[in-house]
Amino acid sequence: MAMLTVENLEVYYGVIKALKGISFEVREGEVVALIGANGAGKTTILHTVTGLLPVKAGSISFCKADLTKIPAHKIVSMGMAHVPEGRRIFQELTVLDNLKLGAFTRKDKEEINESLEKVYQRFERLKERKSQIAGTLSGGEQQMLALGRALMSRPKIILMDEPSMGLSPLYVSEIFRIIQEISQGGTTVLLVEQNAKKALSIADRAYVLETGKIALSGNAKELMNDDSVKRAYLGEG
Questions:
Q1: What's the pTM?
Q2: 2: helix, coil or strand?
């Protein structure tokens, strides 16, 4: 069953048409990857789905609710979390305060503490550094904090924007391992990622974007073996 359905989505930046009638779906429990070159519209899709950009035409349905009529801050409490490009953690706050802010839509203190313990189990480094100012963490640790903060809202789906950007190869592998774990734990994932090879290796399905349109879609493993995808995005052929 589709958890998130986007149909004929059109979005403009001023007079420039950024998304040209895009349609895709994310089913419950899947990891779905959006891949494509810079400027293809990947981040625009995430910003539109989460209510940060207005929709010109088309529809976005999440758990059967029409997201185009719901303000961004209410979308979080419906079960959608967004890990933005560049992490966007609160640099001056501690690791713990950043994580607690992830649970701002929740009221039950006991359940929030349970979620905090789960995050600490998954990200032991964050537990060790819980009193540290977030801006002093390494890039990889900040990305873990951004993921941990998103998990604190207990989302049904997490939208991740370039989680591996700017990280060392070691941290890239670690982040993708964690994304797989999050998925195996029952959270649906929509992943925007420049590292197409890594994204396709963990995704169930994928959509290839080219200048605001979907050029290809299908099973992630099959797309990995597609000659045009290999040439354009995997540095092969």
A1: 0.92
A2: strand
> pLDDT tens digit string along 91-107?
899 999 999 999 887 88
- What gap in Å lies between CA 112 and CA 96, rounded to an integer? 12
Region for residue 64 given its phi and psi (left: phi exceeds 0; alpha: psi -120 to 50; beta: otherwise) = left
The tokens of 72 are what? 């961004």
Q: How far apart are CA 4 and CA 187, in angstroms?
A: 13
Helix (H) or strand (E) segment spanning residue 117? helix 109-122
Instruction: For residue 93, count other CB atoms closer than 10 A to its CB.
Output: 15
- pLDDT of residue 158 exceeding 60: yes
For 225, the token pair is 């073996």
Angstrom CA distances, 189 to 32, 49, 168, stand at 6, 13, 23
Task: Please say whether the beta carbons of 152 and 115 come within 8 A.
Answer: yes
